[in-house]
Write a structure and sequence with these properties.
The protein is of the alpha+beta class. The protein has a domain of 101 residues: 2-Layer Sandwich (Alpha-D-Glucose-1,6-Bisphosphate, Chain A, domain 4). It has three helices and five strands, in the order H-H-E-E-E-E-E-H. Strand 4 and strand 5 form a beta hairpin. Helix 2 packs across helix 3.
Length: 155
């Protein structure tokens, strides 16, 4: 009984949405005139041909481009790098996982995780990653994503 009620409610919501959209389109079609129509905003925060926000995706790939990629999944929004050792500090290496959780360009649509290892006794030993490091990486990605969006709007 509960499933039927939920299905009929869902159907009613869909019908109401369709009617509202139809009414809005009819109203807009009456708005004629000689003025040029404004162009659609192709840089909207949800523009995507992949499963996640395209600006966050491109900014994430660009930000971690210094490290070799182990896995990328644009539909699921996951980027995993392989271990990367800075040539200036070969006794330490990092590995990052970036997850884009939404199609919106928002700070909470991005999650960054990092692992760090240091060379010790001929092998690699796990070491802590400072929270500020992960936060800085998230900030860099968000800033780049916003810049990409701005350049799409003005371009």
């Amino acid at each position: 009984m509960m499933a039927t009620s939920t299905n009929s409610t869902f159907s009613a919501v869909k019908t109401a949405r369709a009617l509202l959209i139809g009414a809005a389109l009819v109203g807009l079609s009456a708005c004629g005139g000689t003025k040029a129509r404004p162009q659609a905003d192709m840089a909207a925060s949800k523009v995507t041909t992949i499963g996640v926000n395209s600006y966050l995706w491109r900014a994430s790939l660009d930000t971690v481009s210094f490290a070799p990629l182990l896995q990328t999944d644009s539909a699921g929004g996951v980027i995993v790098t392989d271990w990367y050792a800075n040539p200036n500090n070969p006794g330490e290496r990092v590995k990052m996982t970036i997850t884009i959780l939404d199609q919106d360009l928002r700070a909470d649509a991005l999650r960054v995780a990092a692992s760090r290892q240091v060379a010790q006794g001929g092998g690699w030993v796990d070491a802590p990653v400072q929270a500020a490091t992960v936060q800085k990486l998230e900030d860099i990605i968000l800033t780049k994503a916003r810049q990409l969006r701005r350049s799409s709007v003005s371009g």
